[in-house]
């Protein structure tokens, strides 16, 4: 259905639809595969005669894909009903299925009904920092935490995982109403109970070339980047390293590859990986059943593999970078296998792995005891029987982590640099956290206000608004009308209650407090939250604020909407007795006398918004270089007295710089040479060669601008040298509505750039990755004219601020 909008349809039928108690909906990896713990739970239910009444609905991307059922036994395939993700049928099941099972998160419009049972299996024991533990990325928690707090059952494989999710990672402790079931991972049953031969036969069926007489080594690297659309550099490195190992161990090992789903989309197109790259559709735990030696990096897959008692190799060439960027929960010294830095070290270790792996036997056994204590092959059965029959087991621990504390919900505004924010920061540091559980609801943090978020007390839990409101089309129109006018004429209360239910994961609070008191848009969600007492603050003479004119405009004219919401609040609180008197007089038609109260602001502590002066960071030197000399010192670590090895190189080698560190005035850079990691070198040994032109190709095409990212359009061919700024014409975010004529493409060592024009005067060079949806215009003048007419009709103004600025 072309114009079908899942969120609108879901909202329109949310209150009307009825729950079907015999339906289970499963979604794994956003519908991309039938795999992981949802698959293991399905197999347990479908094989058990006690549960024959259930209809099993699996979410897939394409009903007709031949790979949908690749992990499902033949005898159970007929028991599955497919629905395509984001179809009308899919949304109907999201509205009506009694049980919903996923290993990740449902979309931002999903809001569990009270009658539904939500089971979240998650997808790995935490090795890398998660959620609130990742510094400077607070907003990433938004839909994850919203989903977690909705669940009835969260499956945890071990006490370590429970601690992270309940504690610092997602701060579920104190407010989570569901149950954490600590009993192992259902998906590990697939590794324990599948024979090696069956798993290898499935690999062969999917096109993997295996010698049945040789052990299987599987390399499973995790995803490194931030840009999921451009993983090409990672693939080039993987190909080079795999080629090296396969050549070294020809006739000794089958060496094959399973990559992260983000990488697979691109990796499958490389002919060099034919017969080696495992199809993304094959369940990772079935792959582990076929694996004799596992090579991985920061992937939590190694925890699952511990149940096999087989050797592990950690290949972590970028451990120092990754640990700084993301952070780790585990002490690297406790890992049950060696951490190797180069593919050459891997080759040396593989040559004597039987002997060398004995050195890690003690650590291996301790890791098994700590991280897979419950994984005996019967995890799925235990969990199914507990959830559906309430049958308990000595190998199943149920943890309830809600508290008796008074639960407070605050909206503090956007935490801009102002007095209200400072007052709120002081308040969070004055509250008694032995008495209160505190949730702060706000917008996703803007980078320039991030330091204010960091000043909030660490005991609070942040919830960020995620997704668009759950309104029907009619409700959205009414909401927009109200927002525009700033007056409440006909308030869609059902819609606002539904939206508050979605935003707050269906949670109840003792007190909900709009501490800002300025936002008509945000006040509505506090007003319609499920809270016993609702309060709104007044920090100023709000009538004077509403009528204040600045440069011919009235920035707070919509305060009338806030005033009209006052009757939904139990208390309207001023920050002084004098201010209470002023507001009660000027806003008397909106406030009843019994609503009025005051609470003095906490005094300001220290300098309001002075950020700490930090040492200036060294600018990023990442890019493509060449060696100046033929003999180069390769350091193990970026230290002046670090161990080094002298290696000989051609000046034509392609050197990629990945990271930079300055030590005692010497700049060190971490490098790949011809896509194989070697170590650190002094930056003075390199010369930049990323802008060296390989070829120029003239083309006649038209393209669109990628909308998910922002790029610069340069006046001249960009130099690409890190830290050097080129003159920019505009940013692509301002011109996404227009088509762009591509006249030529320049190939450099650093990548491709295209010369583009909109035919209306804006022209320049842009990175090729900024373009998509190409159309060939050769010998098609009428097609070109059509695109130009579109641009004339959608002529947009670019930002004058950017023109010819240095970037």
UniProtKB/TrEMBL annotation:
What InterPro entries has UniProt attached to this entry? Glycerophosphate_synth (IPR007554), TagF_C (IPR043148), TagF_N (IPR043149), Teichoic_Acid_Biosynth (IPR051612)
What GO molecular function terms would the record report?
A: CDP-glycerol glycerophosphotransferase activity
- Record's superkingdom? Bacteria
| Alphabetical GO biological process terms | teichoic acid biosynthetic process
Would you identify the family this protein belongs to, as annotated?
Belongs to the CDP-glycerol glycerophosphotransferase family.
Q: Kindly give the Pfam families that the UniProt entry links to this protein.
A: Glyphos_transf (PF04464)
What membrane topology is annotated for this entry?
Peripheral membrane protein
Q: Which gene encodes it?
A: tarF_1
- Answer whether the UniProt record assigns the keyword Membrane to this protein: yes
Give the EC class as a word.
transferase
Question: Under which EC number(s) is this enzyme classified?
Answer: 2.7.8.12
List, alphabetically, the Gene3D superfamilies matched. 3.40.50.11820, 3.40.50.12580
Localization per record: Cell membrane
Q: Tell me yes or no: is Cell membrane among this UniProt entry's keywords.
A: yes
Organism of origin: Lactococcus lactis
Protein name as catalogued: Teichoic acid poly(Glycerol phosphate) polymerase
Which cellular component, as a GO term, is one annotated location?
Answer: plasma membrane
Which keywords appear in this protein's UniProt record, sorted alphabetically? Cell membrane, Membrane, Teichoic acid biosynthesis, Transferase
